[in-house]
Amino acid sequence: MHTSRRRLLATAGGLVVATAAAGVASACAPTAAAPTAESAAAAPTSAGPPTTAPTPAPAQTVAAAPSPAGVPWRYAKLDPTDVAERGYKSYSAGGCMYGACEAVVGALRDRVGAPYDSFPTAATKYGKAGVNGWGTLCGALNGACVAMYLATDTKTADALIDELFTWYGQQALPDYTPKTPRYQIVSSVAESPLCHASVTNWCVKSGFKALSPERAERCAWLTASVAKKTAELLNGVADGVATTPIKLSKDVSNCLTCHGKDGKVENVHMSRATTCAVCHDAADHK
Predict the structure, then answer these.
(1) pTM, whole model, 2 decimals?
(2) What is the percentage of the chain residues whose pLDDT exceeds 70?
(3) Which of 54, 102, 243, 264 lies in disulfide reach of 121, CB 3.0 to 4.6 Å?
(4) Residue 71, burial from CB neighbour count under 10 angstroms (0-12, 13-18, 19+)
(5) Of 3-12, 95-104, 137-146, which gets the smallest average pLDDT?
(6) Which helix (H) or strand (E) holds 82?
(7) Phi, psi values for residue 194, rounded to 5°
(8) Would you tell me how many other CB atoms lie within 10 Å of the CB of residue 219?
(9) Which residues pair with 194 in a beta bridge?
């Protein structure tokens, strides 16, 4: 074993020495002299006429497509009834948020093309039943907000959201009847943008249960109604119609004087609502 190890080390040492020697020999070898201006001038040239460098072609300007990363994108006025029907049908494919978003964005995909054709509306399916069944923000409103932020600037979109939410909380909905409904649906007033409150108020009014097929049909109609309203609001912006400033109800204004910004309690992080009474009553202050 020791003899083999000595042979291995000796062989390795020989390789190192040989490599070093080769490096020294290379360093000591004479190098060719660099050509001088005189030698370059004296060198023979190849036969034939002198050549000239080709003139580069002028650069062509290509109109850039709208960037999917930047919003707003170009908006083209939509047919609100067509958008409503899209919303009703799309509800069955992915729920309320997807239905409303696909209704508006899908219509713009057909009318405008890029970059709407690159937007993955299927990603909005998470918003069903108030975000995956949590009963928070109504998915139809959620999807409408996405469409508004794609189609107009932030300030305008925020004003449209105020209008949409105010309408949703005060209007008897759904207010659009699809062309081929499965059931006949009664309307109710949500008094809140929350899925939980909206569905519960409708169940009380209609007498149907929250997991009934009639309730699912109601939400499909509601998705169509919200999508239609969204198209109408965006069309208004395109026509130069001024947005309507939000006006708070008396009970909300009274509550915010204490619970809102600079109030004695200031423990509510919101500045807008249809009514506080849908979730709270006077007993909450005792």
Answers:
(1) 0.74
(2) 74
(3) 102
(4) middle
(5) 3-12
(6) helix 80-111
(7) -80, 135
(8) 24
(9) 137
DSSP-derived letter for residue 118 is G
User: Measured between alpha carbons, how far is 258 from 264 in angstroms, rounded to an integer?
Assistant: 5
Distance between CA atoms of 142 and 123, rounded to whole angstroms? 12
Residue carrying structure tokens 């659009």: 176
Measure Cα distances from 238 to 92, 152, 188 in Å. Answer: 30, 9, 31
Note whether 206 and 214 are within 8 A (CB). yes
The C-alpha atoms of residue 143 and residue 128 are separated, in whole angstroms, by 10
Place of tokens 């009639």: 214
Phi, psi of 127 (to 5 degrees): -80, 5
Provide the residue type at 276 as one letter. C
Residues in the chain: 286
Contact status, residue 221 vs residue 185, Cβ threshold 8 Å: yes
Kindly state the percentage of the chain with pLDDT values over 90. 60
Three-state DSSP class for residue 70: coil
Measure the CA–CA gap between 165 and 199, rounded to whole angstroms. 16
Instruction: For residue 137, report the phi and psi dihedrals to the nearest 5 degrees.
Output: -60, 130
- The mean per-residue pLDDT over the stretch 152-156 comes to 96
Tokens of 55: 């003139």
Q: How do residues 12-29 score in pLDDT, each as one tens digit?
A: 444 333 333 344 334 334
